[in-house]
Prior knowledge:
Number of helices: 5
Order of helices and strands: EEEEHEEEHEEHEHEH
CATH architecture: 3-Layer(aba) Sandwich
Helix content: 25-40%
CATH class: Alpha Beta
Number of strands: 11
CATH superfamily: Nucleoside phosphorylase domain
Strand content: 15-25%
Largest sheet: 11 strands, mixed
Amino acid sequence: MNKKADIGVIGGSGLYSLLEQVEEVSLSTPYGQPSDKLFLGEIHGKSIAFLPRHGREHRLPPHKVNYRANIYAMKELGIRQIVATTAAGSLQPHIRPGDLIVSDQFIDRTHGRPDTFFDGPEVVHISMARPYCPRIRQLAVKEAERKGLKIHKSGTVVVIQGPRFSSGAESRWYTSMGCSLINMTQYPEVVLARELGICYANISLITDYDAGLEGRDDIAPVTHEEVLRVFEENSRKVKDVILSIIRELDVNFDCSCSD
């Protein structure tokens, strides 16, 4: 593979417009095919590889995404930093639809997803005490605040299997545990990136209040249509922050994520 990129971006198809003069690259990996071709271009003088997590036509549900192939393909391109985006539901009243949040912790509630590159005979146990790259997280907060956007500096995301949304009881349970937001794709993406020594941070756009909030009958449970509507209305925020992060990211860096 003679194609290389400085920074990887993983997200929805609405982020295509970030890149100009795109080159499509097909990659195969020992773990199968990535979700789609990787789209290579340049932003602020840095080479970028964009990958639509669910495929261009959003044909892959969360539990069918080949996360290992996606992250391995990024590594094959020489990528050492990944900025990922997701839509997410809020589990706390102060985190509102339209807000941005950068997770600093996760709780895994998925099942059956291949979530390691170390299936043997080599056995490696990596620390997940601090799963997300603090350097990119801090930069994301700084750039969002500089643009006057509402962004939450930290939060625990509970990652569910999908594709269904939570029951009311599940949602109340996650809220009672102190979780900030809920999503279907951050795991195992974050863990696989760490296994390959890649810095990874996620910027979530809050689109809904999951199954509602306790004592708030005026807040309706989430629907797929509502998620799409809010995401489309606020996608420009995410794009602007990603562009700013890319502009400020140093491609020659030292970070503990690679240890």
